[in-house]
Design brief:
This protein is of the alpha/beta class. The protein is built from 8 helices and 9 strands. The chain is 45% helix and 23% strand.
């Protein structure tokens, strides 16, 4: 009895630490064991952001995803997104890793899935967006000291093409439609791009469906059941 109590306390402490340190939690259910990963605030890449910023550190997320894929006790991954975007290469690295997983994956955009949050949202097998959430599609931003030569511009163009190709390959939106949304000039004040509300995000084919947590979980459990049948 004492050992069981100690194990429960240890599991509870580990769960609290995971939520506090990594924004993740695991749930157990007869229908399937799910790892829930939250990607919030700004995605931190190779440079450390100020301590007052809410960040998701890619060096924390990448090994988590490998562990989820390799853990036989985990049946599926639920990704909760509320991000303003951030480091492009770090965000794309996370998205590529999620897209390459064999286990069932579902994403849910809550609040916002902006900028590099768009590839992250579509990287899962199925995506949901909350009715009140929004997504911002815009061209790549340049920051810091940029050398004004043709090689620099070609690099940004190729990087942007990588993002577009990833989004198009992992959603139902057409290439020309995504580029049009990205380069719209009359939707955002003093900026280029488009703010997509939930209904439009689904209508364009960027996101699979509108829904909430129960919808995302039900879809994930259904996918887990299909895998078990096979």
């Amino acid at each position: 009895m004492g050992n069981d109590e100690n194990n429960n306390e240890n599991n509870s402490e580990n769960g609290s630490e995971n939520i506090r340190d990594f924004g993740s939690v695991r749930t157990k259910n007869p229908r399937g064991n799910i790892h829930c990963l939250s990607i919030i605030g700004q995605i931190e890449g190779h440079q450390i952001l100020p301590p007052q910023n809410k960040t998701t550190k890619y060096e924390h997320v990448l090994p988590q995803l490998v562990a989820v894929e390799e853990d036989p006790e985990i049946d599926g991954l639920l990704v909760l997104l509320n991000t303003v975007g951030g480091d492009v290469e770090a965000g794309l690295a996370i998205a590529e890793l999620i897209a390459g997983m064999k286990k069932p994956t579902v994403s849910l955009v809550l609040g916002g899935g902006h900028s590099i949050g768009v590839p992250l949202a579509v990287s899962t097998d199925y995506s949901f967006i909350a009715p009140s959430a929004t997504m911002t599609v815009h061209p790549m931003r340049m920051s810091g000291v940029v050398i004004g030569v043709m090689q620099t511009f070609r690099y940004f163009e190729r990087m942007q093409d990588r993002i577009i190709a990833f989004v198009v390959d992992n959603s139902s939106i057409k290439d020309e439609e995504f580029r049009r949304l990205m380069l719209t000039t009359d939707d955002m004040a003093n900026d280029v791009g488009t703010i997509l509300f939930a209904e439009k995000a689904v209508k364009t084919g960027l996101i699979n469906a509108m829904g909430g947590l129960s919808d995302a979980l039900e879809k994930l459990y259904t996918m887990i059941e299909d895998v078990r049948k096979k």
